[in-house]
Amino acid sequence: MLTSFARVWKFAFQNFWRNFWLSFITVSMLALALLSANVLLILTRVTDRAVEAVEDRIEVSVYFKPNVPQERLTGATSYLRALPQVRDVEIVTGEEALDRFKRRHANDEAILASLLEVDRNPFGPSLVVRAKSANDFPFILDALQNPQFRDDIRDKDFGNYAQIIDRIRATTDRIRLYGLGLAGLFLAIAIMIVSNTVRMGLFIHREEIGIMKLVGATDRFVKMPFLLEAVIYSFLATALVVGAILPLVAALEPSIDAFMGPTHPTLLVQFFQQNGLMIFGAEFLGLSLLNMIATSFAMRKYLRV
Questions:
Q1: For residue range 71-90, what is the model confidence (pLDDT) as tens digits?
Q2: Distance linking the first and last C-alpha atoms of the chain
Q3: Is 153 in a helix, a strand, or coil?
């Protein structure tokens, strides 16, 4: 049993080295397919964090009239905080709004001069309402039409965060589509090369296989080296991708996190450290299974044993 097992592995490695350049091209195509898949995985991770960063900035500024009674402002605050779509409500008094306005326009003398001419605080209190999701905007805006305080509201100001998120996701979906197409192309080329390599190996070893059959070799013994060769291709391709992805992620993470901000780090290195065994293990198993299926079909058609 051990002797047969050793011979099968020996024949598999012999096939690999005898067609080294075909093997090299096959492993390269498989590695490019896996690399494309992992880049898409990184892109998905970064996109999710980017969407979370945008959603954390989702807010509606509700400006009340300067003479609004405090109890109505408090009632509006309590009403909004009770909504499940609202993450937080910040109260900004008229004095705080005036102070922020002065700091924001500290270098604009014309605006500050016009503010002095008014000779009073033109700002009323306001509420900064932060939503849990961009999809909650319509509900919150409808809630602000509550008759209890609708007439006390002077204005509402909000950014189109839903449109920003939709643009991020639409761009990511297009990139993901192109990436999947590219990965599929590399994989299809690799599978065709695997099939042709098997056919070539069968042709080269046809006399040897015939002799093996004459001396009692089973069909399984004849086929196993070619199946193991497909596994070798998958293992080498996965190893190359692991060796490329981890340094790439370590190099890209600081730049991406600097862009995303300290509150939403992508933690790409940590993600692959925690999930790398599962990710690359699944990729290796999937690639091995696919290559073995392609090899089996090639042998079924060209190997009459």
A1: 888 888 888 888 888 888 88
A2: 21
A3: strand
